[in-house]
């Protein structure tokens, strides 16, 4: 660093130093032009190495039959992509996402309901808010184990149902449909809190006087929801919808920890991880990952087109 | 009036119901963690109270046989380095983007923006090869570098804060002879304290809870973090729910303590993090 030459650069008056026409000597100008890049060098290097290079490599791998280890690989064109869409056992994982997608509808509904209720004056409001949000902060493995016991034969769920005189005779994680519904339920348990807090924050950003004015005008709770709350949460709601769609497609932790993908609970990401790291099918796994990436980008794009709202857009 | 009372009652019932649904699975696991293996075998039912409320034997087993101590140590190292790195990288990027005009600035901003859309789970197949080629596979460096290098959300949070710092502060410092690095270090960085707090909390909880990255990149048992070490409980303790439960409670308690003390910051942080 050359602090002495920097001192000469004093006459820079414009805030973000715009193109300087005359003034500082050449050496200082070069130094100034370099400054932002010195700050950006490390972040950009990391960004390119760990985000863009992988994406580019992934697209390249997806067109080959590489196994991830051997130096040998063959170009196979779009063969891997054809496999994903034609081999039923590979395509089936998309259907599992359907359970999680349905669950996220329930989740958003619950979150909206509790956010609305708790935005009004309720006793023990902070307690309920904290209880609803806390699951979102818990470690995923701990949640998986907690619910493994919850759904076990004679576990928490069976015992509670027993209190009401109901004795279920099947294992909750025993059949594909029941297992997927149970796992999707865990996902609702885990993520409702985040949606709820986001909605609550949006609702509370509406100034309190507006509610008072509405009440004076004789608006009931439903009117208040319809005309005050609904518009205020629109941007957050649309954000939540993309997060839910991309979240449902990239479910991994809960099913992997609880069932390991057995009994028809394998999700797209579990399958990709298994293909890549257990069966050494890097090419096929890359193609699967590219497909997932494209779907998520498409969903985001559609959402941005449908709800052109800059409130969620930062830059 | 009566309709209103009925509505209120229903609202409270739904809230109490939700609280029960959240707390019951956790409470039962806590009770189990205090039971002895004999009590578990006698099967008093999932909802029964343990005989001895101070039976900490399972916690000892979890700590010793489950290697939870080294797991906490590994997690602590990763947390410390990754968070420090994230704060430094995020604040530097935000400072450069907001306070300078330079060629390709738009392109740089776009690179960071688009990267936010790429979900990390999808690219691990190829990221793995890169991490491996650097020789970082199966070392603490893999998660540290990945947490540091792929966190776009923190950059947004810093960017918003840097914008709110008046440029006149930079200018007067420059008049006093400060260069860009001094301005960053002496003026911007200290004023970013609220943003740093947000990033530390959000990032801290995310890193503490992450399973995917340590699971993929650190298979050796010595490098277990709390997620992966707890996951390994499934094997040796598979029939011993009392030990598994103790492990889960050990992992949850720090989160609970942090949440109780920093509630307000946590709500704000996650709100800012999610809506960027």
List the helices and strands and how they pair.
The complex is a heterodimer of chains A (315) and B (276).
Chain A: H1 3-8, H2 26-62, H3 79-86, H4 88-91, H5 93-119, H6 125-137, H7 140-150, H8 156-163, H9 176-204, H10 208-216, H11 221-249, H12 253-258, H13 268-277, H14 282-306
Helix pairs in contact in A: 2-14, 3-14, 5-9, 5-11, 6-9, 9-11, 11-14, 13-14
Chain B: H1 2-33, H2 37-42, H3 57-64, H4 68-99, H5 105-115, H6 120-133, H7 141-149, H8 152-164, H9 167-175, H10 180-191, H11 193-209, H12 212-217, H13 226-232, H14 241-275
Helix pairs in contact in B: 1-14, 3-14, 4-7, 4-8, 4-11, 4-13, 8-11, 9-10, 11-14
Q: How would you explain this protein's 3D organization?
A:
The complex is a heterodimer of chains A (315) and B (276). In chain A, 70% of the residues lie in helices and 0% in strands. Chain A has helices at residues 3-8, 26-62, 79-86, 88-91, 93-119, 125-137, 140-150, 156-163, 176-204, 208-216, 221-249, 253-258, 268-277, 282-306. Chain A has a domain at 93-265: Orthogonal Bundle (MetI-like fold). Mean pLDDT of chain A is 84; it is low at 1-21 and 310-315. Chain A has 315 residues and is mostly helical. Chain A starts with a helix and ends in a 9-residue tail after the last helix. Chain A is flat, with a radius of gyration of 27 Å. Chain A has 14 helices and no strands. The longest helix of chain A is centred in the N-terminal third of the chain and has 37 residues, at 26-62. In chain A, helix 9 (176-204) packs across helix 11 and helix 11 (221-249) packs antiparallel against helix 14. With 276 residues, chain B is mostly helical. Chain B folds into 2 domains: 2-55, no CATH class; 66-275, MetI-like fold, CATH 1.10.3720.10. In chain B, 76% of the residues lie in helices and 0% in strands. Chain B has 14 helices and no strands. Chain B has helices spanning 2-33, 37-42, 57-64, 68-99, 105-115, 120-133, 141-149, 152-164, 167-175, 180-191, 193-209, 212-217, 226-232, 241-275. In chain B, helix 4 packs parallel to helix 7, helix 4 runs antiparallel to helix 11 and helix 11 (193-209) packs antiparallel against helix 14 (241-275). Chain B is globular, with a radius of gyration of 24 Å. Chain B starts with a helix and ends with a helix. The mean pLDDT of chain B is 89. Chain B: It is found in: Cell membrane. Chain B: This is Carbohydrate ABC transporter permease. Chain B: It is a multi-pass membrane protein. Chain B: Residues 72-262 form the ABC transmembrane type-1 domain. Chain B: One of its GO terms (biological process) is transmembrane transport. Chain A: Residues 93-303 form the ABC transmembrane type-1 domain.
